[in-house]
Every structure is written in structure tokens, then in C-alpha cells.
Amino acid sequence: MARDGATQSARDFIAGITAGASSTIAFQPLDVIKTRLQVQDEVDASRRRYAGFARGVRKIVADEGVRGLYAGTTPAVIGSAVSWGAYFTCYNAARRRYGAARGEGGKDFELSARENFYAATEAGMVTTVLTNPIWVIKTRMQLQRAGTLASGAGAAAEPPYSSFIDALARIAAKEGVGGLYKGLVPSLVLVSHGSIQFVAYEHLKTLAARRRRGGGDARGVDPSEAAAFGVLSKLFAATVTYPIQVVRSRIQQRMDVRSADAPTYARFSQALVQTLTREGLSGLYKGMTPNILRVLPSSAVTFAAYETVTKLLASNDD
Prior knowledge:
The structure is a single chain. Helix 1 (2-38) packs across helix 3 (73-101) and helix 8 packs across helix 9 (268-279). This protein is mainly alpha-helical. It has helices at residues 2-38, 53-64, 73-101, 113-142, 164-180, 184-189, 191-214, 223-252, 268-279, 288-316.
């Protein structure tokens, strides 16, 4: 039984890594423009570098070339692969544990929404603590403009990061462990995003399975269904939790390269209140358009790839 659990965990990890890396590479440009829009906190619109999603994309390409749309790709791929690999592994291990506690074994068992929520939250907490340094590096490298810093003031005093390893070493040396764990509090709050999404995803899968069983069809979810369920569950979760993502990006950015009159974001509650006070509710939804365009198809790719790889790995054992 233990060996079966270990084998399944290995499948979950491989499938999660494949799914996460695939979706990240496909949609990295949208993540770059989303992050740059999120940290634009100038109240005066004339001072903003990027005037919305479409114009922002055109400006990045004009100033930096297509390469600018792929800033921070290395930490993004590493972070996504590790996150999804760890998440799927921890999530499904928790689900199997809850199922075993209820006396349910085998591959096909149903948990309550509350049990799925607990499993997703548990997996999210572990994954967040494990990967937070990677996301700090990703955010900072995405804000660099083709080898220069995205903020004008102070840029000459501190050179941009040349690579993932360079960023890791310099942040650790200059800011210590605390620098690598900036934004951890909103990241932990954002665990609710995955929990909400996975509860919705599992509920949709359960409804589909029940409908099939009623028609005498014992097949599991197919990739197209997984993609559709991933999109629907992600849309719901993204809308609810997006403001926390904006606050996290603002906390994780490099404060040493911002202009003298730019606000400083020291902690979650302060950043949240300051954003609302200065920019209103709309400030907490900056970059929402590219985020939706990125996360919906990305989620479809991730869940379709995950279900496909899981089935392929399982078929090799038959």
C-alpha cells in the first residue's frame, strides 16, 4: 500500500511539473505585462509608463523587442514547475489520507467540499513556503526592462539582476532571508485561491462522473473536460483573490530603485490600505485583463496536461 502511494505521488509530481512548465512558457508575455501594470501606482495617469494592456504590450516590444515580453522566464518556469509538482503531490496525498480515514480506498473516491478545501489549503501552505523566494525573483526580473531597471531613480546605483542565480545570491546577501520571503503573508492568504479553485474543479469533476455513471459510462474525465473545468474554476478564484496578488507584487518589487516620491510598501495591511486610499478599488485590479487572458487558458493547459500525463503514467503500469 505504501509503495502504491509513493508511486502515485511520483506520478502526481511528474504530471504537475509538466503541466506547470507547459502553461508558463505558453503564457509568459501576459504575466510580464500583468506584473508591470500591477506595480504602476502613479495617481497621475500621465506619469504611468504603460497606458493599459494593449498599449503596454506595444511599448514593451518597441522599447525592448519581443525578448522584453519574456523577462523573468527562467524563475517563472522553475517556480511554476516546482509549485505545481509540489502542489499536486501534496494535494492528492492529502486527499488519499482523508479518503483512507473514511475507509475509502482505490483510485476513485469522492470527498466532501470541505475535505477538498482542507486538502487544497494544506498543499497550498506547503508549496507557498517552499517557493516564495522563486516568486520574489520572478517579480523583480519581470520588472527589469531588457537589462535595465524598470524604475528610473536609483537605477544607476544598483545594477539589474543578470540571471536567476545572480538575483538569488544578491537578494540573500543584501536583504537576507527576509528579502527572499517578502510578500509571504499575502502569498499565504492567496492559498485560498488554490483552495477555492480546486474545490470548484473537484466539484465539477464529481458532477461529470455522476452523470457518466448514470449513463453507464465508467470513463474518467477527459482532457477537454479537464480544460473546461480548469477555466471555470480559475475564473471564479481569480476574480475573488486578485487584489491580494496586486498587493504582493508591490511588496516584492525592489524599493531601492523607485523614485523618491514613490510610496513604500512594507507589509500586507499597510500596502492594502495605501493602495485603496491612493487609487481606490480600481488600484487593486490593475493588470486584471492580461491576468484573465493568461490564467484562463493557462489553467486549461495545466489541468488538461495533468490529467493526460497522469493517465499515461498509469497506463504504463497496467
